[in-house]
Amino acid sequence: MLTPADAEALAADVLPAAVERFVGGAAGAELTLRANRAAFDRLHLVPRVLADVSSVSTARTLLGTASALPVAVAPLAYQRAVHPDGELATARAAQDAGVPFTACTFSSTHVEDIAATGATTWFQLYWLRDRGHTEELLKRAEAAGCRAVMLTVDTPRMGRRQADMRGAFTLPEGVAAVHFGRRPDGVPGDARSGTSAVAAQTANVVDPSLRWADLDWLRERTSLPLVLKGVLDPADAERAAGCGVDALVVSNHGGRQLDGAIPALDALPAVADAVAGRCELLFDSGVRSGTDVLKALALGADGVLLGRPVLWGLAAGGHQGVLRVLRLLAEELETALALAACPDLAAAARLRVANGGGTIR
């Protein structure tokens, strides 16, 4: 494994085909999935020269906590479907790499056990139909020592992930959403032909009526920093910043929600302009390398969330596989910073970029 992206081929050698499709697949014809990578490929950095880069710092404070990189592990559901050690292995790798880990509502390991690894832990929340259960999860996350709540706002229902539907995807035996306990909605069960059991479970428990006014209810029930994940339109970003949220994640869910949505990287500059520094700005969807991280920083992000490469590393080698992915990302970012004459991340934010047509920002 010489790059984070190399983990994909290694994971393919060990994952069951259905699980590999579940991890790597996206919604619809997967147009947005491919567009996310195309956006990175057509964006070019304009490096500077003659700066002292004998020492390069990749450190950043994210949501009030020091991080060795401008990177956090994205919320990734059902990690025990990929490796028996699941979220515990990933959280320990994040701790070893000095970056935050985001525990998911649909985690296959309890948030208390994840936080007990010592990793800086954020908690990703889906807006549940059962408001009492939502409040219970918030209290559990706070009691466990989580440092932030990340509300996913782009999933009123699950996107039509055709690979899962065609294969009638069901989670492997013994893997379930443990935060739902023995409730009937905690285990996806079997899927009928043309359906996904995971999508069916999501439809059962996620409330599609989530509105702006509900943020007040959430604020009243937690003192943790509030992050909204899944914002692409600058009007939504401006409204969110005006509501006092602590951070936004510019994301199209890795292409797994609305197929045909704008590549997240293309949406980032306008969102950054709309936010104008009023809250932190994170980015995900398509990040595969340290240079990708640098491009996101140059377009206005304070940090990125890393998703699929983490799962590929987990599948390929458990804790050590994830740690290898994160350390390679760190090496690539440090090298990219040095070659662009950026001794730190503040300098990275001042880099100019050019698109495929030559327009420079």
From TrEMBL:
Query: Organism's domain of life?
Result: Bacteria
Q: Active site: which residues?
A: 253 (proton acceptor)
A Pfam family (short name) is: FMN_dh
Q: Which cofactor does it need?
A: FMN
Keyword annotations: Flavoprotein, FMN, Oxidoreductase
Where is glyoxylate bound in this sequence? 126, 161, 253, 256
Q: Does the keyword Membrane apply?
A: no
**Protein's UniProt keywords contain Flavoprotein:** yes
Cited InterPro entries: Aldolase_TIM (IPR013785), Alpha-hydoxy_acid_DH_FMN (IPR012133), FMN-dep_DH (IPR000262), FMN_HAD (IPR037396), FMN_hydac_DH_AS (IPR008259)
Q: Where is the FMN hydroxy acid dehydrogenase domain?
A: 1-358
Residues at which FMN binds: 75-77, 124, 152, 229, 251, 284-288, 307-308
Give GO MF terms, alphabetically: FMN binding; oxidoreductase activity, acting on CH-OH group of donors
Q: Hey, which family's this protein in?
A: Belongs to the FMN-dependent alpha-hydroxy acid dehydrogenase family.
The protein depicted here goes by the name Alpha-hydroxy-acid oxidizing protein
* Annotated organism of origin: Actinomadura craniellae
